[in-house]
Amino acid sequence: MSTEQLVKTLQKLAVLHEHLLTIAKQKSDILKNGDIDALNQQMKEEQKYVLAIKQIENERIMQVQHLLENYRLRDEEYTLTKVIEISKEPFKQRLIDIQQKLVYILDELKQVNALNQQLTHQSLQFVNVTLDMLRPEITTTNYGHPEKKQKDEHSNRSMFDSKA
């Protein structure tokens, strides 16, 4: 394994994460529009990229481990930072650049995913409020048997009365 192969693997990771970021941004728009079919399609596409990233990430781990073992660093942590420390130019600067690019992309992806989570939560709250408005509330002003009253209250609950 060479440092050049590691650089190529990291570049693949960066490209895959950029595509994942694009999908996450599109998902934000879809969530704002409330298009469930498009959301399902986006999530399927997102899964493809997540699986590809996992595969390339495993390759990266093996390459880093192999490079560090070649330098007799077996007891150390197998990190990209450690590889950068032992690398020589021009690979050292290329590794630093791609590491910074990945950090930037991952940070932006984290922010977009946090927004998507908030949008999803708001959509679920809207659905719950809508269901509460549609479900009639039965109020009794008469006195009745307390046990019968309790049974009636529980029978009015919808099967949708739960939080996801």
TrEMBL record:
Segments for region (Disordered): 140-164
Biased composition (Basic and acidic residues): 145-164
Keyword vocabulary terms for this entry: Bacterial flagellum biogenesis, Cell projection, Cilium, Flagellum
Domain of life: Bacteria
Record flagged with keyword Amino-acid biosynthesis: no
InterPro entries according to UniProt: FlgN-like, FlgN-like_sf
Protein name per UniProt: Flagellar protein FlgN
UniProt source species: Litchfieldia luteola
Classification of source organism: Bacteria, Bacillati, Bacillota, Bacilli, Bacillales
